[in-house]
Amino acid sequence: MNRICVLPLVVLSLFTAGVVSALFFRLSPGEIMAALASEETRFALRLSLMTSIASISLALILGVPTGYFLARTSFPGKAILETFLDLPLVITPLIAGVGLLFLFGQNMLGPRLGEWGITILFTPWGAVLAQTFVACPIVMRSSRAAFERVGPRYEWAAATLGLGPSQVFFRISLPLARQGILAGTVLGWTRAMGEFGATLMVAGAIRFKTETLPIAVYLNISSGELGTALSCAWVLMATGFVLLLALRWIGQGPRPETLPSRSR
Fold it and tell me: Structure pTM?
């Protein structure tokens, strides 16, 4: 069976290597270095890092408690609710962006937020919300799976020793589930960094204002600036590669159920 699987493995590896090589060898090393050093590339990288960190932070605040609740609670309609919360995973990002555009537009939340001096559309905050929308389900699903693997027995033991619900969560449940939560964080962060469709609709494609790395690729391909476009694409790929390596390292750590138990 292993020999049968070798051919698909070779084809897939060559296919991936061909795509990456086509992007790399299109420009000379000097052109790539000049594009990487450009002000536009640096701005896009800074904005992508800021918006993705902000969005993954919001996704953690929303997704981890939700995952814990779904892992520990049973109620009628739970399957329907879980399916509903997973919708951002299957909705086309462009359609999700249209929904966010309408939600924060002038006919819905836009005027109310404007009274408080908050502007979402066509600002970096729009990119943050778009990235949060696509990252939340990933963090939520990973967190739920992590809490389910831990099981409630440690929490019951901590409760019998006098710890309150919040103490049990932060001192017992969260540390034991950290491996799965970290994995979801890395996946969500990777997804946020590469988000394009929803960001384009909500934040727009404005140079040196809402220009994340994917938006920079789009703008420079459209204007024929191939060097800057490919440099931003390479930064995205390198970042994703590093984050995926980190994810593999996290996955090799000890699982909660394999932790040694203390003798009484």
Answer: 0.84
For 132, list phi and psi in degrees, rounded to 5. Answer: -65, -40
Closest CA to 140 of 195, 75, 83: 83
Q: In whole angstroms, what is the distance from residue 18 CA to residue 14 CA? A: 6
Separation of alpha carbons 117 and 115, rounded Å = 5
Please tell me the distance from the alpha carbon of residue 176 to that of residue 181, in angstroms, as a whole number: 10
The pair phi, psi for residue 26, each rounded to 5°, is -70, -25
Question: Which portions of the chain are predicted below pLDDT 70?
Answer: 1-2, 251-264
- pLDDT tens column, 8-49: 888 888 888 888 888 777 777 777 777 777 888 889 999 999
Q: Are 52 and 193 in contact (CB under 8 A)?
A: yes
First-to-last alpha carbon distance for the chain, in angstroms, is: 48
Q: Is 249 exposed, middle or buried (0-12, 13-18, 19+ CB in 10 A)?
A: exposed
The residue written with tokens 């051919």 in the block is 7
Which uninterrupted H or E stretch holds 210?
Answer: none
Give percent helix, percent strand, percent coil of the chain, each to the nearest 5: 75, 0, 25
Neighbours of 258 (CB within 10 A): 7
Q: What is the CA radius of gyration of the chain?
A: 22
- φ, ψ for residue 261 (rounded to 5)? -90, 145
Q: Quick one: angle between helices 29-36 and 226-251, nearest 10?
A: 80
**3-state class (DSSP) for residue 247:** helix
